[in-house]
Amino acid sequence: MRDTRESRLLLVLLIAIAFALITVDIRGGEESPVDGARQAAAAVFGPVENGVAAAVDPIGNAIGAVRDSGERHDRLAALERENAALKAKLGSDDRNRSRLRELDTLLKTAGAGQYGIKGAEVIGIGAAQGFSWTVTIDAGANDGIERDMTVLNGSGLVGRVTTIGPSTSTVLLASDPDFTVGTRMENSDELGFATGQGNGPLLVQLLNGKAKVKNGDRLVTFGSQANKPFVPGVPVGEVVRVDPLGGGLTRNIYVRPYVSFSKLDIVGVVVQAPRTNPRDTVLPPKPKPAPTVTVTVTPKPPAGEQQPQGQVEGQVQGGEQPQGEQQPGQQPGQQQPPGQMPENEQQNDQQGD
Description:
With 353 residues, this protein is of the alpha+beta class. It has helices spanning 5-28, 35-113, 343-352; strands at 116-125, 134-137, 150-152, 157-164, 169-173, 180-185, 191-195, 202-206, 218-221, 235-242, 251-257, 266-272.
């Protein structure tokens, strides 16, 4: 509709009529003259409003749901982060406790052998410089590490340092086939050479082919000149198999190493050798055998069988006859009358008369 003078007058008139109806409706209260018209309009436009509300409400609910879901998502994300932090803390605490135990055992072993050590952590495993059984530790030349130093942990011999970097070093493990170390048997002092066999036990060749060796015997490092590459007295392992005697000059035995090479974490590099040979003092204490309990059972005689005289249980001393004891010449089951002397005692009395 074009904006003309007539249209503006019509708009002003409609607004005036609307205000007049509102004023009359407010003043009339419940008896307003326009109440009937309002009810008629509600009857006509009510279904239309319901339809519009039904169409609009899902959209409003969806918008609210999206807004609420965003808040819930943020809350869930926060809870997940808190759970992850707690799990990481718990896992870290468990790992720290385990590493503290390893460090404590390492320090006790080093103290028993009077080894001056530099603690290090294994940060890598795998082939390096052509070696198949090596680990990388986080200590190098800047920490005083040198080539051909002995490496151990709380259990025993780990290997020797082969390559040096400013802050890292490569350690050749005792399980490598190219690894060889001089050994000495506990107590007997028999000497030999241990060689790595990968995942298997160490192969030790004793110099004395006729030496007496049995399962359970233990070995330590013999030591090297100037204590490089090996210091003496480091536990090596325990004998698990002995080859029968042959015609050779040496004898092969198989030794299970004390160190688990697949679980290395905290190690120590011996930077200062002991003043004296610790010999067997670094070896772990031998387990004590469990006491044997012996039970002696004395069989009882069969029912009705008479026990030998002097072994009757509960026998009355002073010559009094136990109840139920049979006298010579008495029939089985027959009791001695009171006051009557046995037949043999009567004969003795007659002879005495």
